[in-house]
């Protein structure tokens, strides 16, 4: 590993691995190091031995839930929006070759003490218990406005300027009830609190469009998920990077960060010194260069031996408990997956509950979610503080990623990827279609 | 048309034992002297007809990720066949081969077909007579066979350079692949897989391709 590189990447979390892959494709010579002996960092999926040693060190896993290797438990529960930017990056880089995806069966929302499916088509919408008859008509009018809206056709704007009108005003224009606003804002636009109501409607509009486009793509829900867990994603992008010449070293702690004139110059490890003018790292590699966002996330990984009640025995689902349904400021999310996605032993289900902590008794804040999921076989809990870089990297050439937020999808992660990419390279990320298998064979002199 | 089954085959072995060269020989009957370490092409396919069945090998190269023992679990995932390659003139590469076999037993699916391959056979034989030259090889045929017998592996000595035994390795693997296990389609988890690369018919403003 000794020598000169264009970029050193520290940490094999998803953000770092996507950047590593993109930069290798660009022809940059990348050295990618992780202090841990597995891929994925904070965005890894762990087996139960790893999981128990991290969250219940006093109680090692002893095969009570089947074979250890059948389990891949995500440390950060998220799903991919099927029309989202991560899907777009996966397709353009052809990392889809290395993994397989399935739909998440349904998206549910908590309303008045119970959960109901977020309608994914007209038939479901008509029979949905979420709204009364007249409200359904108002909702339909609202959605028609969203679908028909075209930026360059003023006639479709219904007399509103999305950059000026607030989202609450837009809702009111369609006479929507409070519960419907909750439903649209939290279960479709996927906002985790109500701050968006007083913001211009534009971003919520974009989010609803993303949601509707994602549902329309495969049908059951807006979400897709990789077989064997989210930890496959960083591994897939790491492979992409390696194929384009990236060098990978796991289990390699950084002994010293080298500087020249106050700028990053390289790293020293047990294998020697590697030099590069630029480093990309997750927050754990530069604790002095990040600050807390002030938010802490609690995540509870629950092992179940049954599907979640009232989901028609769904093998996977996203359940959102909107904040004001349970007197909170932040939504509670439940992500459930099962052996249908090859992440646990047959007969088991995994439910991961997460929210932003609001009190000094965070485990009690999850109570409404525990009621939704029913009996658990075991629960492992962890609290994570969220970090962000203090500086943008222009001074010292140290570009640090943000912690993975509690949102239910990867849109903020890919925003961070694009932002760091631009700061590192000086230009916007333009995704080019990677060569096909046949073209690559030709490249290798095989045709 | 005969039945076609897809088989994911992974390559394992120390750097520079000729993993990519074996594939190059198999896929295009070619050999490149002093081939650079693998970059840019690590996913090759080749069809191989055995009797009435056609096997499409999807061959995964290590992309250099073996150098620091950093192959990801993703690499082994659902592999139905593996080539564990060593260099018959490099004893260290044979020790490494043992390690890879162990790794495969731990990480890969239970019924994976593994072939142990001692490559660079051309280095130990006289090109004129085809006879072995004494003192050239460091790993004996017996050592290779013993490991293969112990672990239940197919065993071949090959030369990617002269093409010796290369096709035979893949044919032997193809014969060993049980028809029903090639891609476990009837496993419940195979229901509902989606193809992200399939063209999407959409007219909404949701497409955000920056191109």
From TrEMBL, chain A:
This is Rab GDP dissociation inhibitor. The lineage of its organism: Eukaryota, Fungi, Dikarya, Ascomycota, Saccharomycotina. Pfam families: GDI. It comes from Pichia angusta (Yeast). InterPro entries: FAD/NAD-bd_sf, GDP_dissociation_inhibitor, RabGDI. Belongs to the Rab GDI family. Gene3D superfamilies: FAD/NAD(P)-binding domain (3.50.50.60), Guanine Nucleotide Dissociation Inhibitor, domain 1 (1.10.405.10), Guanine Nucleotide Dissociation Inhibitor, domain 2 (3.30.519.10).
From TrEMBL, chain B:
It comes from Pichia angusta. It comes from the Eukaryota. PROSITE patterns: RAB (PS51419), RAS (PS51421), RHO (PS51420). SMART domains: RAB, RAN, RAS, RHO. Residues 177-186 have a biased composition (Basic and acidic residues). Keywords: Nucleotide-binding. Residues 177-211 are annotated as: Disordered. This is Vacuolar protein sorting-associated protein 21. The keyword Membrane does not apply. PANTHER family: PTHR47978. The keyword Chloroplast does not apply.
């Amino acid at each position: 590993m000794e020598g000169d590189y264009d970029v050193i990447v520290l940490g094999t979390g998803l953000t770092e691995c996507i950047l590593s892959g993109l930069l290798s494709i660009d022809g940059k010579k990348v050295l990618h190091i992780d202090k841990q002996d597995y891929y994925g960092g904070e965005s890894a999926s762990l087996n139960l031995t790893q999981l128990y040693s991290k969250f219940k060190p006093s109680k090692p896993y002893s095969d009570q839930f089947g074979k250890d290797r059948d389990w891949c438990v995500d440390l950060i529960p998220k799903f991919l929006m099927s029309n989202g930017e991560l899907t777009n990056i996966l397709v353009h880089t052809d990392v889809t070759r290395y993994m397989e995806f399935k739909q998440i069966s349904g998206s549910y929302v908590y309303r008045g003490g119970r959960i109901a499916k977020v309608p994914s088509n007209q038939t479901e919408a008509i029979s949905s218990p979420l709204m009364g008859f007249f409200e359904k008509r108002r909702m339909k009018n609202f959605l028609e406005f969203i679908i028909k809206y075209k930026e360059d056709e003023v006639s479709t704007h219904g007399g509103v300027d999305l950059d000026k009108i607030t989202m609450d005003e837009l809702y009111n224009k369609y006479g929507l009830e409070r519960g419907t606003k909750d439903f649209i804002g939290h279960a479709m636009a996927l906002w985790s609190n109500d701050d968006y109501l007083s913001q211009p409607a534009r971003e919520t509009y974009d989010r609803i469009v993303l949601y509707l486009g994602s549902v329309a793509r495969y049908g059951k829900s807006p979400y897709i998920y990789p077989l064997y867990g989210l930890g496959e994603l960083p591994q897939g992008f790491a492979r992409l990077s390696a194929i384009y010449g990236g060098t990978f070293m796991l289990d390699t702690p950084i002994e010293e960060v080298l500087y020249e004139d106050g700028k990053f110059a390289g790293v020293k490890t047990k294998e020697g010194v590697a030099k590069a003018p630029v480093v990309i790292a997750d927050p754990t590699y530069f604790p002095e260069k990040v600050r807390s966002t002030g938010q802490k996330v609690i995540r509870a990984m629950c092992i179940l031996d049954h599907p979640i009640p009232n989901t028609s025995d769904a093998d996977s689902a996203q359940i959102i408990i909107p904040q004001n349904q349970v007197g909170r400021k932040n939504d509670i999310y439940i992500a459930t997956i099962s052996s249908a996605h090859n992440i646990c032993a047959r007969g088991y289900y995994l439910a991961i509950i997460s929210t932003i902590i609001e009190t000094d008794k965070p485990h009690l804040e999850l109570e409404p979610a525990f009621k939704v999921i029913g009996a658990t076989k075991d629960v492992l809990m962890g609290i994570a503080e969220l970090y962000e870089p203090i500086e943008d990297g222009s001074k010292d050439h140290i570009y640090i990623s943000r912690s993975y937020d509690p949102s239910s999808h990867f849109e903020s992660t890919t925003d961070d990827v694009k932002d760091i990419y631009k700061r590192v390279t000086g230009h916007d990320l333009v995704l080019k279609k990677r060569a096909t298998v046949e073209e690559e064979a030709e490249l290798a002199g095989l045709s | 048309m005969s039945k076609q089954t897809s088989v994911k085959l992974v390559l394992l072995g120390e750097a520079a034992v000729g993993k990519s060269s074996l594939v190059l020989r198999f896929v295009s009957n070619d050999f490149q002297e002093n081939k650079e370490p693998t970059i840019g092409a690590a996913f090759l396919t080749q069809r191989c007809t055995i009797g009435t069945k056609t096997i499409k090998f999807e061959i995964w190269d290590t992309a250099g990720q073996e150098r620091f023992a950093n192959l990801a679990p993703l690499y082994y995932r659902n592999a139905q066949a593996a080539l564990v390659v060593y260099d018959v003139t490099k004893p260290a590469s044979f020790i490494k081969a043992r390690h890879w076999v162990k790794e495969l037993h731990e990480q890969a699916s239970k019924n994976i077909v593994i072939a142990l391959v001692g490559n660079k056979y051309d280095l130990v034989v006289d090109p004129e007579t085809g006879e072995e030259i004494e003192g050239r090889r460091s790993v004996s045929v017996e050592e290779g066979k013993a490991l293969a017998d112990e672990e239940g592996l197919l065993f071949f000595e090959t030369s990617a350079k002269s093409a010796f035994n290369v096709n035979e390795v893949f044919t032997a693997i193809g014969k060993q692949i049980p028809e029903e296990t090639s891609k476990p389609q009837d496993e419940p988890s195979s229901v509902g897989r989606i193809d992200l690369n399939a063209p999407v018919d959409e007219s909404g403003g949701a497409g955000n391709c920056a191109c």
